[in-house]
Amino acid sequence: MTDGSGNWKHSNVYAAGKLLATYDANGAHYNLNDWLGTKRVQVSTSGTVDKTCWSQPFGDNLNCLGPVADDDNLHFTSKQRDTETGNDYFDARYYASSVGRFMSPDWSAKEETNPDGTYDPNGAVNKQAQQVEDHTKELQKQQ
User: Fold this and answer.
1) pLDDT at 43
2) C-alpha–C-alpha distance, residues 46 and 55, integer Å
3) Residues 96-113: what's their mean pLDDT?
4) Are strands 10-15 and 18-24 parallel, antiparallel or unpaired?
């Protein structure tokens, strides 16, 4: 990660898709997370506590206290926080921890299985089939 001028601030080390450590000018720092994946304690390589972190329910207002600056932008459940909006990126949609809500509907709620047994992740095929059926019925009425 760099600052606005392009100067290196720190690098993140990942293992199995999870943030394991952050390496900066002061060395490596290891994150100790809660059961949701939110950082609660950061320790140095010697085991000294660098900082402790806490937040309100649903991930709002993550605060860290300690001598080492909180440079990473991973917050609630270790999701990346957008610095412009303050929302956390959950792969398919954004979560606003300030209100405890996602900012858009769950796209996966539209998933359907088609009559022929195939999988339709957006539910589009069933809608098209229904439109064709409705149009066919309308044509039959006109005849």
Assistant:
1) 92
2) 26
3) 75
4) antiparallel
